[in-house]
Amino acid sequence: MAKMSDILKQDLYELLSITYEATEQEIRSSYRRLARECHPDKCPDNPEAAKKLWDQLQEALKVLTDETAKSAYDRLLKARKANALRHKQLDQKRQKLKDKLDAREKSAKEDVLSEAEAVDQLKREIERLRKEGSKQVETENEILKQQIEEELKQKIESDLKKSQLLPKLKIIRKSKEFELSSDNLSDYLSKFGEINGLVLTKNKKKALIEFNDYKQTLNVFDNRHQFEHLFTIEWIGDKPDINEKTAETVDISNTNHLNDINMKPNEDFSNDYESIVLRNMRAAEERKRLIKQMQEQDSQQD
Question: Residue limits of the J domain (predicted)?
Fold first, then answer.
């Protein structure tokens, strides 16, 4: 919670980057934008400063969205401006104008509270808001919480999509005249889609290749006859059951190379980020295992 002295010293309109004529909707909109930027969960590098600004923004929202408190605060600003103007005029016109200015201020006291009175009234209103609890802040924080959760959910879903284990193809050199290399395979196969990973065995007789999505992998396999004079293309494990219409639902429960991985293609990990990390680790280990298996097979054949 921000200190009372800090609230009294600050220009709350300037803190929220709004004008003095801002509507309640504009106040709320600016609060949401600034609060999202300085939310402690999104500022891990400087959490103390973020927390301090977060508290100040909440106090500003409380004051400026409560009609009575806002009125008291506006009186305080008006009194301060009047006091600053009085000092400026005193400096400019020197002491000879002091009596005249004092007379003007005396006649204006009926409409403008003194700064001291405005401070006292604003303190009372802020204390009232703190005791009652601010429904405005609770509502805005709930909206902000939902927005942050949605942003985190989208990030997790994006990471999940990237972490899904894709089916792989094995390339076996058929023609001795053909050099099995990353460049040559890319030249022949990149037209079917983006190659996600490509690994060659040491003797360059076999390769393991993975594309960016299921449809691309299936397209390469279906067109393998184009390259049968140079190399053959086989599935690593059983051929996945791929839905041609969406290419989003893949039945990999029966593939031999995934039997030791406890996962489901459509499992919802949106609320469990640790599951995504584990899934990535499992996918990486599976790739290593397949590469090692291919290398061992080649060694036995040699």
Answer: 11-77
The alpha-carbon radius of gyration of the chain (Å, integer) is 34
What type of residue sits at position 6? D
What pLDDT shows up at residue 290? 72
Distance of CA 205 to the CA centre of its chain: 45
Give the distance from CA 251 to its chain's centroid.
Answer: 31
Considering the domain architecture, whether residues 154 and 169 belong to the same structural domain is answered as no
Same domain, 151 and 263: no
Residues 6 or more apart whose CB falls under 8 angstroms from that of 184 comprise 178
Residue 40 and residue 181: Cα distance in Å, rounded?
A: 50
Range of the domain at 76: 4-158
Among residues 121, 140, 158, the one where a domain terminates is: 158
Same structural domain for residues 274 and 209?
yes
pLDDT in tens, 229-264: 999 999 987 676 655 444 444 443 333 433 333 333
Helix/strand/coil for 119 = helix
DSSP label of 137: H
Evaluate if residue 7 carries a pLDDT over 50. Answer: yes
Contact 187, 226 (CB under 8 A): no
User: Same domain for 137 and 213?
Assistant: no
